Structures are given as structure tokens and as C-alpha cells.
Amino acid sequence: MEKKMRFGIKSKIIIGYLIVIVCLFIAFIVLNSQISSLQKERNFIIDHDIEVHDLTNRIEKHLLDMETGQRGYIITGEASYLEPYNSAASSWGKDYNALYQLLNNNPNQQEKLEKIKGSIQDWIEAAGEPTIALKKENNTKELQQFFEKDPGRQYMDDIRSQFTSFRNVEKKSTETRATELDEKNQKIKIGLYGLLLFVTLISLAIAIVLSNSIVNTIKEVTQTIKRITASKGELKGRIKVRSNDEIKDLGIATNALLENIEERNWLQTNIAHAVTMYQGIASVDKLAEKFLFTVSEMTGASFGAFYVREENDKGDLFVKQAAFADRKGDAGRESFLIGEGLIGQAALEKRTLVINDVPDTYQLIASGLGDVKPKSIFIVPVLFEDEVIAVIELASLHEFTVLEQELISQVIETFGLTINGVIRRMEIARLLKESQAMTEELQAQSEELQTQSEELQMQSEELRMINEQLEERTKDAEEKSFELEAAKEDLEEKAHQLELNSQYKSEFLANMSHELRTPLNSILILSEMLEENAAKTLSEDEEEYARIIHSSGKDLLALINDILDLSKVESGKLDVLLAEMNMSELPDQIERNFSHVAEQKKVQLKINKAQDVPNIIHTDEKRFQQIVKNLLSNAFKFTESGSVTVSIQRVADHRLTTAMRTVDTDCWLEIAVADTGIGIPKEKHQLIFEAFQQADGATVRKYGGTGLGLSICSEFAKLLGGWISLSSEVGKGSTFTLYLPSLSNGLVDYEKVNFAYEEVAVSIEEAEPEAEITEIDHPVQPVEPSLPDDENVFQDKRVLIVDDDQRNIFALKTALAKQGMTIMTAHNGIECLEMMKNSEPFDLILMDIMMPQMDGYEAMQKIRGELKLGDLPIIALTAKAMKNDREKCLEAGASDYISKPLDLNQLFSVMRVWLVN
């Protein structure tokens, strides 16, 4: 450390003279500086003003050159006159910019200069360039007209007046600067005299100060020692020594002694106050608040936070219990983990941290006038049994002194014991309160248990009586249980019987179908052949008899088919094959199938199809066509006059009910068949949908029928996910409406919509149809199929008929012989195989299925397997017509399948296909 220079009396006198000399030197420098400043300002006035006037004159000269060159060129037409014009036009802008830059400290003059520039440009644009251009074009007439008005003269006069005004202002500015320079020169003279006076006074003052510093220092030391001696322990007084000599050394040593004694007294007093101030405090938060307030008052801290350790799932967590100078609760974070941040690191290392270089982002200290950044941070952990139980953080607007740090360190040496004691007292108080609360709760529970005990005694008596009643009821229940078990066994037996009956019924219907279809096949084939009367051997009456027999056979076949369909539906064995159906062809199909019926009965057929009906829907087309045909057949049957109307439309979204929306479908269709027939009484509306039921006996006698059609339609509609509703009035007609979904995503469970059937039907019938309906009134003529000449296909073909019924053999043999075929017959599968082994190859086999000894299935399998005749056409003929018959026949080896009774046209068509292929 550099040693301080000691000054004696002699040194002080020399220093005084040196100071006077320095003051004189400084005065000389200041005076020289002022003179230099005056010289610079004078030079500025000379250089600046001269250059301004020079640039102004040069701009005027350029303008004069431009005017002279313009007029010379216009008068003489010589291009040489344009040289000074062009030179001045390119040079005046540079001088203007230099002048404008020179006047950057004078905005008013710059504004005038901008006006001069605008006037020059206006002259060039209005008088200079246009006249030169006219002269170049040799347009004398327009030049003469231009100079008659001569607008350029006015521009020139304005420019000259503007330059005159500009120069006058510059002249006044030069005079003003000269005046200011004279005034400044006068001030320098006055300042020089004042500086000399100031140096004289400084010299006198230094002499007085030097002499007084020696005498006064000795006096002050003496008086201070006397005052401290007389103050009886008051040590705040200090010796103020201004000199740097031996007397000052004595004063400094004395002051150091006094400061040390005062600091020790202050430290002991505050420690004693801090130890006694938290006596009697029973809560940690109160203790923390009191401690922060006291310590902040002792150390002058402006901000503080007090954290106490708490245990949780994450480990030791220090939670804020109190804060000093808190602003809306933002004094420090609410909690921190050990090792987290500086405060957590201080707790981890169990050491005190003092930070004087506080970052700008630190918490600001709030006051009434604003926020102030602290200058020092003091973080100190509080230990108890070598464990950190609390951490204190203080912030101050001044740096914490060593004495303040020592005070806090000594106070917290015993403060950990105090905190632990308060925490223990709080825990004891909490446990005491919990104990008192539990005692009161136990007392209340004891009283409640006593009350409940009395209630339980009463309830036990009631339960005893109830138990006696329950025992009696249990006996009755056991007896009823035995009865129910017996009834259950009886019901199961009856259910088994019903299942067997259903199976027997299906087998019976299948066998009856076979037994009925077999003779019916012969009747239909032979009656059709008689009806044709190819040999012309029958009379007209006999042909009519044959037609009646054929028609009756078809009616009987339709009845058998209805009974079988109804049986399949009831037994759940009817397959539904979903596929795409073209709705655009439906009107033509209806027209084609029923137009001749309408003509025969003289009833008008109307078909209306809405525009919003989709072209393609997904459903079972066969069942759908069967429903529509049945409804139309009934409509024509019961309509003597008037019309039958078919309406096809899409059910609008607002008409869909909740039940209909639950069905996974693309859309709902509404097909209504309305007639003007006899109508149906309202009480018969449900009855007619039951099997073998019609409206009344008179209807049966007059119109005939079995009553199966509507029942089958209703069941088919349910299988397709829809239903049929009826609206009818006796004498006015009936409307049967089929509601059907498009099942692109598969079949729907009808039970999902069956529960809301009535609500759906009513809501749809009452709604007004809004779809646009297109009426199809053009009749579609039925197309008569044109059959090709069969002689080339059937002639000399060898056909084997395998059937055990002689009537069928006779009928088929007769029909096929007329086509020129060679017919061979076998009565069962065994005979068929023998004939095929021993005879010439056959072109086609007609194979019956139900035969004795060896049925058609086994015979076809052996033909394909043993005889290796995979390409031989075999057409299976069966009268059983039950579920999966077609698939079973094809799997056994049949090429095609036809059910009995046979349609000769269908048979010939199928035979033709296989014989040609």
C-alpha cells in the first residue's frame, strides 16, 4: 500500500504558493482558449459568408447562361448557343446542393433556397426546354405565340427577387455574427479581470486555511477528548482532523479506538435485544415476522423472507413463513427444495452467502414512489443440532457491513434452538387440540352409539318378528319353486315338441311339395301341349279345356309356392340375398307386367316416380319384386273401375322418425299402391295381414284367393328391414304403402324398428309429401321374345331322362320327341349308370333327384367321378324345391337346375344353352 505523504508547516506553505501558480496557469489557458474561439468564429464568418455569396452568384450566372443560350439558339438557330445552356443546366444543381448543405444550420434560408430551386425548375420546364424543342422542330408559329406571352420573363423576375431577398438575409446574418463576436470579446475582457481577482482571493484563502489547519486541529483534538471524558460513556463523538500531519495521526488513532468500543457496545446491546424479543411467541409465522422486523431494523435491510423446513414426499421443502416489505405476497418464492437456487445451495452447504454484485433481474424493493434495485443480498441458514431448520434472506439498499453480518451470525447461533422450541410447542398444541376434538367426538359417538343400541334393540325385536314371517314365506316360496321347476320342465318339453313339430312340418311340406309337384309337372306339360294343338286334332272346346287345366295347374303351383314361402319365413329358413337393384327400371317393369291386366279390366294404370329416388338401392330384388307384384295383383283383383296408382318416392329427412334414423341405411323409400276398389273396413286392417285371412266371406266367394299374399308380403318386408302400412275406406279404395331401407351395409334387425311401427306409420302417413313426382304416362309395349329356329339345336340329339315317375317321363318324352331328339329313359341312378356304360354317348341328361335305390345326387357324383364325364351337361329336375336344393345339386355335379313343375320354354332355353356350349 502506498504510504501517504506527510506535510509539515513548511510543506504546506510551499503547497499554497504552488496552488496560486497553478491558478494563474489555468487562467492563462482559459484566456488563450477564449481568444482561439474568437479567432475561429471570425474565420467562420469570413469563409462561410464569402462561400455563400460566391455560390449564390455562381447559380445566378448559370441561370443567366441558360437564358442567354436559349435566346441565342432561338434567334439564330445555331447549336453552339446550346453549349452554355446545357453546361449551365448540368452545373447549377451541384452548386445548389453545395449551398444547401452549407446552410444546414439555417432552416429558413434552406426553405427560401428550395423556393428558388422550384422557380428555376419551373422556368426550365415552362420556358427553357419547350422553346428549344419548338426551335428544333422549326415551329416558328408556336414560338411567336409563346414569346408574345413570354411566361419565362415572369419566372426570371421572380428568381431575381428571390435571390435579392436571400442575399439580404445573409447580409443581416453576417452583421449579427459580427455583433455577437464584439460582445463576446468584451465579455472576455471582463472575465480576465475577474479571474485575476479570483486568484488573489484564492491565495489569501489558502494562507488563512493553512495557518488555521495547524491551530484548529490541535484545538479539536483537545476539545473532543475533554467531551468524551465528560459524556460518561457516550462514544458517538469523533475527532475531526483536516491536516495530514502528526496531529491527524493522533486523531485517527483516537477515533479508531472510539469506533471499536462503540461497535462492541452496539453489538452486545442488539444481541441482547434480539434474544429477548421472541420470548413468549407460540407460532413460527409470528416468530418469523418479529425476527425479520427486528433484524431489518438493526441492519437497515429493506427486504426479507423467512423460510422454515417442512418434510414432504419430495424431501425437505423450505416454505416461506414471513416476509418483510412484502408487496402483494411477491417477496421471494413460496417454497424451494434444498440445493435449489442460491438460497437452496446455502442450506445445502450450511454456509452464509453475501452477494454485493446483484443482477438486474433481482426482485425490486418497493416504496411509495417506485421500485429500487437492492445493492446487497445476505443469505444465512439457521442450524439446530447441525441441521438446517430455517433459511433467512435479506436485501438492502446498501452493502451489509461486517458488523451487521457479525450481528446476524451471532443472533442465529441460538435462534435455531428457539425455532425448534416454537415448532415443538406448536406440535404439542396441535396434538392437544386434536386430542380434545377426538375426546369430544368420542363422547358424541358414545351418545350416538347408546341411541343406536336402543334402536337396534327395537329393530332386533322387529327383525325377530320379520324372520318368523320370512320363514313362513320361505316355505311357501320353496313350494312354489318346486311348482315352477315342474312348470319349467313342462315348458321345455313343450318347446322341444314344438321344435320337432316345426321340423316335421318343414319335412312334411317338402315331401308334400315333391308329391304335388310331380303329378302337377305332367299336368302342366301335357295340358300345354294339348293347348298348342300342334296336330290340329282337338276341337275349340277341347283346346279351352286344356287351357283351363293348364291355368288351374298354375294356380295350384302358385298356392304351393305361397305355402312354402310362408313356411320358410316362419321357420327362419328363408335366405335374403342383398344386391344392387336398378330403381330406374322399376316403372318399365311394372308397366310391362301389368299393362295387359289393366287393359283387360279396363282400369287405368298410373306410375309416378319422384326425381329424388336414387337409381341404385341395395335390397333383395326377388323379394322386393314379389312384394310389389302381390300388392299390384291384389289392387287389380279388387278394382272393377277407376285406376291403380303406383307412387315411388324417397322419404324426406324431416319425415324420418327416431326409429328409422337408428337403421344403418343410405335412404328410405316409400312405394305406395293405391286403388279405387272396394276398400277394407278399419277393423279388418290387421286381420288381412294374417295367413289365410281375408276381409270377409263375401270377398272370398266373389274374388277368390287364399289370403296368403299379404301375409307373405308383410313377412318379406320385415326381412328387408321395412314394413307395410294400410290406409283404406270402404267403397273408396285402399292404399298399401311399403317402407323399405337401402341396405348397403347389410341386413337390419327388424326388432330395432318394430317397437315404433305404429308411431312411424302414423307420422309418415300424416306428413305431406314434398318430393317432385314425375308421372310416367307413356305405355311400354310388352316385347314378345323371338325364339330362334330350334331344329338345328335339338335335331338328332341324344337325351337321357332319369326319373322314377312314368307320368313325367311320358310328358318329357313327348315334348322332346317333337323337337327331333332321340330319347332314352332310366328309372333310377343305377339304370342310368348301366345305360351310360353300355350305350352310345349322350348329348344331355335330365336328372330327377328323389328316386329309389340311387337318387340323383349320388348318380351325378358317380358320372363325374367314376365315368370321368366332366363336360357332359346334366340338368337337375326336382319337385322338392327346399332351401339349398340348388346349391346341393350344383355341388353334386349338375350343370344347371330347374324346379318342377317344368316350364317348357324355360326347359328348352336351358337345354339350348348347354347344347350350344
Task: Explain this structure.
This protein has 917 residues and is α+β, with helices and mostly antiparallel strands. Helix content is 61%, strand content 14%. The protein is built from 23 helices and 21 strands. Helix 1 runs parallel beside helix 3 and helix 3 packs antiparallel against helix 5 (151-230). It is elongated, with a radius of gyration of 65 Å.
Core attributes:
alpha+beta; six-stranded antiparallel sheet; six-stranded mixed sheet; 61% helix; 14% strand; elongated
Quick rundown:
Helices cover 61% and strands 14% of the residues.
Sequence-ordered SSE layout with sheet pairings:
Blueprint: H1 9-76, H2 82-102, H3 107-136, H4 140-149, H5 151-230, H6 246-277, H7 284-299, E1 303-312, E2 315-324, E3 335-337, H8 341-349, E4 353-355, E5 365-366, E6 371-372, E7 376-384, E8 387-396, H9 402-532, H10 540-571, E9 579-582, H11 586-601, E10 604-610, E11 616-619, H12 621-637, E12 643-650, H13 658-661, E13 668-675, H14 697-703, H15 709-719, E14 723-729, E15 733-741, H16 751-754, H17 757-766, E16 773-776, H18 791-794, E17 798-802, H19 806-817, E18 822-826, H20 829-838, E19 844-848, H21 856-865, E20 874-878, H22 885-892, E21 896-899, H23 904-916
Parallel strand pairs: 10-12, 17-18, 17-19, 19-20, 20-21
Antiparallel strand pairs: 1-2, 1-8, 2-3, 4-7, 5-6, 7-8, 9-11, 10-16, 12-13, 13-15, 14-15
Measured distance between first and last alpha carbons: 128 Å
Q: How many DSSP helices? A: 23
- Fraction of residues in helix: 55-70%
Radius of gyration: 65 Å
Number of strands: 21
In spatial order, strands of the major sheet run 3-2-1-8-7-4
Q: Describe the main β-sheet briefly.
A: 6 strands, antiparallel
Strand portion: 5-15%
Estimated structural class: alpha+beta
Average of pLDDT: 75
Q: What best-fitting shape do the alpha-carbon axes yield?
A: elongated
Low-pLDDT runs? 697-704, 752-791
